[in-house]
Amino acid sequence: MLLLAGSYAFRLPALLNARSTNSDAAVVGLQAMHILRGEAAPFLWGSGYQTATDSFVAAAFFALFGASPLVLMLSALTLHVLGTWFVFATLRRRFTSWTALLLTLPLVVSPSSVHSYALYPPRQASLTLALAAFWAIDSASEGSERARWTWLASGGALALLAVGADPYPLVLLPAIGVFGLTTIARDSRIERFGTIAKRFQAFALGAGLGLLPFIQLHRLAGAKKGPMGLTTNMVSHHVRLLVDECLPWALSYKVYYAHHVMDYLPWDAPLAFRLVGIVGAVLLGAIVCFGLVSPFVRAIPWNIRRLGFAGALAFPTAIGGFLVSVMVMDHFSMRYLAVLTLMAPFAAAPAARFLGTRRFALVFAPHLVASAVAGWVGYGPFVRGALPVIEAPELRDDYQAFDLLRARGITYAEADYWTAYRLTLLADEKLVVVPTNAVEDRYPPYRRAFESAPVFAYVHDPGRSRENLEGAEKMLAQTNAQVEKLHAGALTIFVVTR
After folding, report:
1. In this structure, what DSSP letter does residue 91 have?
2. pLDDT per residue as tens digits for the range 423-443
3. Does the pLDDT at position 277 exceed 90?
4. Where would you find the membrane-spanning parts of this chain (predicted)?
């Protein structure tokens, strides 16, 4: 109950300000609304590699609680909480409830790298499936031999289904594979070859079945390879980015916060917090290193050693993947290191057993404190000190803009991508806003309806738009019959007659 309450309570600032969501998440919500109208699709709108799994989950929440940005956020967060429970339940088999809770706390008081998935879909469904795979494989260490086959097959299937839902859990496949193989030979004594072979067959069969949807999806028209490419051409750039910004942010010894919406700045933290963050990261590094060598520490039970090694293995795998990924661009790429937090509980299990709960708590505490403070500060305008903000002021501007446009009978508009789909969801499609750059379209019917409207609006949000306002005004004036300029708080709106 503490795990459940804490997981939601720590996200209260974002939940209170769910209407300030981003366009990537809004696309999931909009697709969920259309799913409830019978308009289903295998892929996420505008994507040929991410499935609509998160959209279907959101649709189920919308069916129960109504469609809104808050319910959309709750759909993703509930998936994260479910994944947190899988981690806790796995650890609970090896430790007392309180020690398991202590180990799982990084997923509760998580930094911004985890917030980006736990609060804003899409991708959380795939991560939850991957964490469920660890739980299922670990379940194969107990029960009858037939039950072990079932659990191993389930774990293999869940791992590949996770990758089918979104490519991101590929980074966890080596850890899941090692965990499965070490579970097949479930303890240190030599077992019969036939027994091991049957377990391996069950694991491989489950993985094969889980891979089938991925294969079938990528045979469909419109399927794309997506961000699964690797390159060594940018390694030097990625190393600098990793060392200077992304790894410190992911491990909470450097904190960024939203100065204004999408404008993230480093927090000028007090010296005491900087020291806590650095000490916490160093101690976490030592804990992970101990997890990597734990298979050789026979004083620790094998079930804990194999879990610790698998969790710790995710750290070099994720960092190595970061260095050669084609998707790493800037400091926001720290989100690709979210698995470091997700796997920290497993990686720390051998150290918790070796040190005992009290001594381990002292060693783990600096990282937990740094993570909690970094995660809270990272909410930016959604918090004021230790208190959450009930509603960000920017929403007043959004609703003023809706009123202005509704009064003029305007139902279609265009804006920068990061403004467009967010406003469409917020207006419950009573105002449909398409990206100014048609290449960024996620749903073609919106574009067709926009292009047939004789009058439309152009919305410029200084906190989100990447476009030059003066340049946009000149272009609209040159290519249209009439342009009227309006203001809604910080928003600038042009009402355009074609």
Report:
1. H
2. 999 999 999 999 999 999 999
3. yes
4. 55-88, 95-114, 200-218, 271-297, 309-328, 334-355, 360-379
